[in-house]
Specification:
Shape: elongated
Radius of gyration: 19 Å
Strand content: 5-15%
Helix content: 55-70%
Structural class: alpha+beta
Number of helices: 3
Largest sheet: 2 strands, antiparallel
Number of domains: 1
Length: 86
């Protein structure tokens, strides 16, 4: 990986989910317009792929943090347990 690409990936790691998603949406719009040159399109695609992976990792981390509240037989909160997904 070139130094420029490595720097670009480090930049992505610092982004919040919302920032990365906004950049990804912008890249998708640029690629869908068909106005970018071939080399530019490839660079946009590569950055978009990295942004997508970053967003997926952020979502997975958030999902792991979500817990559901358990209730005792009297209806009072008695603790938490991992949320069942699926």
């Amino acid at each position: 990986m070139s130094a420029a690409k490595a720097d670009a990936h480090k930049d992505i790691e610092k982004l919040s989910f919302e920032e990365a998603l906004a950049q990804l949406e912008k890249i998708v719009s640029q690629l869908e317009s068909g106005n970018a040159a071939l080399e530019s399109s490839i660079e946009l695609y590569e950055r978009g792929t990295a942004l997508k992976a970053h967003c997926e990792a952020r979502l997975k981390a958030a999902e792991a943090r979500i817990e559901k509240i358990t209730l005792s037989s009297s209806g009072e909160p008695s603790g938490t347990e991992p949320l069942d997904v699926g």
